[in-house]
Amino acid sequence: MSGTSVDAIDSALVRCRDNRVEILATHQHTIPPKYKQQIAAISHSGPDEIERMGILDRELGRLFAEATLQLLEGAGINSRQVEAIGSHGQTIRHRPPSATQHKRDSFTLQIGDPNTIAELTGITTVADFRRRDVAAGGEGAPLAPAFHAAAFAEPGVNRAIVNIGGIANATILVGCELRMGFDTGPGNTLLDHWIYRHRGESYDRDGAWSACGQVNQSLLERLMKHPYFQQQGPRSTGKEAFNLAWLDGHLEGFPDISPEDVQATLLCLTADSIALAIKSTALEIPEVYVCGGGSHNIRLMEKLAAQLAPAKLASTVELGIDPDWVEAATFAWLASRTLKGLKGNSEVVTGAVGARVLGGVYWGGSQASG
Length: 370
Ligand SMILES: Nc1ncnc2c1ncn2[C@@H]1O[C@H](COP(=O)(O)OP(=O)(O)OP(=O)(O)O)[C@@H](O)[C@H]1O
Ligand SMILES: [Mg+2]
What we know:
Nucleotidyltransferase, domain 5; three-stranded mixed sheet; 2 domains; alpha/beta; globular; five-stranded mixed sheet; binds magnesium ion; 12 helices; binds adenosine-5'-triphosphate
């Protein structure tokens, strides 16, 4: 798994049994800076795109294979003991139907060639999970809610599961029923890009820098006017909608604002938009569990807890899965569903005309070189 933050490749060795997953080993694999730059560059239009994408697709396939082999080496596991790799790929474009004027122009694109992964590891690789959902009229995202329902639902209890990655998404569980799931808007992406611009740091550890600033209410109100926050029903978003160019447009009205104040305001934007999305379900949700890197941002968690009170806010570790490995486990689980011929998406979440078996299968084999 490599998400919109492009912070690292998360690889997890997961045992899937029935609907339960058990994480046996984990490995966080560094993404070399040159690939981070190339991913950032290919994520918007530019010259020679097909050439650059073709090369990066293969490079990331090699990197994902390397991440897998190092995970297995550390765990003392042979590749023949592994049934499959579930590879999400690196999203380089996400243009879902909800953000597209003509629905037939919608598409989503993840790269990291699964042929290369299967070739170098010898392990059957399941990949390209999102495009089948888009083909069936869905958003292609979020896909995590079906896994959240399988792993975290409790009969008779209403819960929200919130994943705060680059973009944040929420799953609404009414007992064991998956009632809703949607992206809520920016998670860490704006916070990461803003601190990088001003301090050269890749993220605001524990939200410490944001704590040096004051929330600018007038800027916050403007940012909260983004039409995405008013959308209802199946919806998903990406860096296409929430990026520094969008922020800069709004900052023109605030020439004297300090960078710290902007960071404090962005942190509030993430917390407020998550809380708004949960509250707008009009359901009583007494428990909210958080996963993803944003769950380590202490200031963000404090803000979110205040916004959601009196609901309980906790980490998914309380439900048995470390918040850093939920996304990786999701794609292991989805791969196991695909190989069993089971459906992986949920039409109530993505708006697809129906649930589908997701992804393509790239068979492993004895010809493995790596
Ligand atoms: N201690 C911390 N304090 C503040 N932020 C943190 C901390 N640890 C991680 N993060 C944030 O979490 C981000 C990484 O989160 P994560 O890996 O869940 O996102 P992602 O790769 O975008 O995943 P996805 O899009 O699939 O949800 C980092 O870029 C950083 O912003
Ligand atoms: Mg990540």
